[in-house]
User: Which sequence fits this backbone?
């Protein structure tokens, strides 16, 4: 990028917005919830539904077999891996559960995780604790934000956990966890490593070879701008060759060899079920292709520009407290206002056709307790197709409503 050349000019924001019909109706700053889908994704989904209506569901899938396989190749390109290491799932949480179910936990096993984590992951750990008697250990946070890598290293060495599990970008703050540094520790000590990348894939470049994870889970509906009801799971060669598989496998992931034996398929497909909404699979493949064409590094730089502008604007409002912390910040901006509830602020913004979301105390009990938060925060999540004018409009609307 040359001097004076902005990411906005490089991206051709006008063209991107012309391909995003929702921008004509709302200022969409809830991309951490579900982004606005671009026209190629919408058309891919609706065209396949029309084809199913004409031919039948099975026959339409057969007719689009090659296009369906592109889901795996485009997803692999997003993560710098191979299509054999990708499984399609119904959601990031579904992918996470399938990964956890593949690990044969026993009483006394340790899951080493962090204070900043996704609520569903922590509930899953607690369920494992209740059923199998495992132990959940949370590494200390760095005073500046994010997990303390040195404490993670000490606990890996002393506890020999069965699994290390980290959320790359927690849903409740702008934090970006040091997943690569943690992955290096896990490889040195031969520990299984599970990364929740639900909020990072699509807004940040992701390279599983650098993260060195055994499992990585994500959704297609957030920063990837795909449809709801689709996610995916990355499974490492190490895990596949060791024979790990989900607890419940159907005829898609294994073949029934005899009355008492089955054989796993050799790829990550063993983590899938046979039935899929193929219109959504095709739409997700198109969304992944769209993100790759825009460029993940370009997207990350554009998002950083927008969020820097947003955080600067919010910092100018005396009544607003930003909850984001850490050396590196993502496209999730959370705030709290002492005399206006997050629910009221969200409703006021919605009346101005500005979309935001809420992050309740129950979604991040450990982090919010540490921050002295007992109520709900407002979450704002820009993406590359948003404009500076939309960011400024949000800040001005907040100033008016809060002031």
Assistant:
């Amino acid at each position: 990028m040359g001097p004076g050349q902005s990411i906005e000019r490089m991206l051709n924001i006008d063209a991107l917005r012309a391909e995003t019909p929702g921008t004509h109706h709302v200022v969409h700053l809830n991309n951490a919830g579900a982004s606005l889908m671009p026209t190629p994704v919408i058309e891919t989904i609706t065209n396949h539904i029309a084809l199913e209506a004409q031919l039948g569901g099975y026959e339409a899938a057969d007719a689009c077999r090659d296009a369906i396989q592109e889901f795996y190749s485009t997803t692999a390109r997003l993560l710098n891996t191979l299509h054999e290491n990708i499984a399609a799932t119904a959601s990031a949480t579904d992918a996470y559960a399938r990964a956890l179910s593949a690990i044969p936990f026993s009483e006394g096993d340790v899951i080493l995780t962090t204070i900043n984590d996704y609520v569903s992951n922590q509930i899953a750990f607690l369920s494992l604790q209740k059923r199998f008697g495992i132990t959940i250990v949370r590494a200390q946070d760095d005073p500046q934000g994010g997990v303390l890598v040195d404490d993670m290293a000490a606990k890996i060495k002393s506890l020999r956990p069965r699994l290390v599990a980290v959320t790359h970008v927690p849903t409740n703050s702008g934090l970006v966890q040091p997943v690569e540094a943690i992955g290096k520790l896990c490889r040195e000590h031969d520990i299984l490593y599970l990364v929740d990348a639900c909020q990072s894939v699509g807004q940040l470049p992701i390279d599983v070879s650098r993260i060195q994870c055994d499992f990585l889970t994500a959704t297609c509906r957030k920063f990837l701008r795909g449809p709801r009801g689709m996610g995916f799971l990355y499974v490492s060669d190490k895990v596949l060759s060791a024979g790990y598989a989900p607890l419940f496998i159907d005829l898609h992931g294994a073949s029934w060899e005899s009355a008492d034996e089955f054989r796993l398929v050799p790829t990550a497909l063993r983590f899938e079920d046979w039935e899929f909404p193929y219109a959504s699979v095709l739409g997700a493949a198109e969304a992944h292709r769209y993100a790759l064409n825009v460029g993940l590094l370009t997207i990350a730089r554009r998002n950083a520009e927008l969020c820097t502008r947003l955080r600067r604007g919010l910092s100018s409002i005396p009544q607003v407290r930003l909850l984001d912390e850490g050396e590196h910040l993502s496209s999730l901006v959370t705030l709290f206002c002492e005399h206006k509830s997050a629910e009221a602020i969200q409703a006021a913004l919605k009346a101005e056709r500005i979309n935001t979301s809420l992050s309740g105390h129950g979604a991040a009990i450990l982090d919010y307790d540490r921050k002295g938060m007992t109520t709900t925060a407002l979450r704002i999540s820009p993406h590359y197709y948003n404009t500076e004018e939309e960011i400024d409009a949000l800040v001005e609307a907040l100033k008016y409503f809060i002031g």
